[in-house]
Amino acid sequence: MSTAYIITASEPVNQQIYRFLRQDIVTCVISPGALLSEKEVSARFSVSRQPVREAFIKLAEADLVQILPQRGTFVRKISARRVADGRFIREAVETAVIRRAATEATPEALARLEHNLRLQKLSAERNDSQAFLLLDDEFHRLIAQSINCELAWETVENIKATMDRVRFLTLSKVSPPESLINQHEEILQALLAKDADAAERALRHHLQEMIFSITPIAEQNGAWFEQE
């Protein structure tokens, strides 16, 4: 676990540790099946074990770790079934959001999406996968924000942690950033045209790519996936 993070006074310590560990698990800095030690994580962040324990519980709620009494806390292997379930829920929420955004998004909101897309292109040029994933999430959050319904994105964010690990693994070969940027461009153009049907089609195509990519990723990283 070599990624450097700094605990600040800006938010509760347990939430920061949760966010940092979630990022490391999603980007496979901490690999599926790994044992998480309360003692080691406490030392890493120079905090007591209580906020670490609370962060572990939150990671378990996100289905990223499994807490086994008397044995320890282990990073869950990736479940293709949970990825499919998460994508189904995400698609249901986000298609409702995108249709409203097609008619309600203001010019200012659309300008923020265009700026985000420019930043995505820069991160792709720099081969910065972590920055790209954050901007990808921000693109979708901005769409929810454009209809004053950030709760929709918060709902999606709470169920997509397992999806995020597959997203990260696909970036190098199966779904490179350039392909995802083109899909985001199609979504944005439909929103600019105020075409709800085209926006929904573009979004569904974008989200359904996850299902097509999971099989080759599972074949390439078999030890990281659950046998289902």
At a glance:
The protein has 228 residues and is mostly helical. Helices cover 69% and strands 4% of the residues. Strand 2 and strand 3 form a beta hairpin.
Q: What is the first-to-last residue Cα distance?
A: 29 Å
Overall strand count: 3
- CATH class group of the largest domain: Mainly Alpha
Fraction in beta strands: under 5%
- Largest sheet features: 3 strands, antiparallel
| pLDDT < 50 runs, ≥5 residues | none
CATH architecture annotation name of the largest domain:
Up-down Bundle
Structural class: mainly alpha
Strand order of the largest sheet: 1-3-2
Overall residue-averaged pLDDT value: 91
Rg, please?
Answer: 18 Å
Helix content: 55-70%
Task: Please tell me what the overall shape is.
Answer: globular
Provide the number of structural domains: 2
Walk me through the structure:
This protein has helices at 13-26, 38-45, 49-61, 80-104, 107-125, 129-145, 150-159, 161-170, 177-192, 196-220, and strands at 35-36, 65-68, 72-75. The longest helix is centred in the middle third of the chain and has 25 residues, at 80-104. Helix 5 runs antiparallel to helix 6 and helix 8 crosses helix 10. The mean pLDDT is 91. By secondary structure, it is mostly helical. It has 10 helices and 3 strands; from the N terminus they run αβααββααααααα. It is globular. It has 2 domains: 13-75, Arc Repressor Mutant, subunit A; 80-224, GntR ligand-binding domain-like (Four Helix Bundle (Hemerythrin (Met), subunit A), Up-down Bundle). It has a 3-stranded antiparallel beta sheet with strand order 1-3-2. Residues 11-78 form the HTH gntR-type domain.
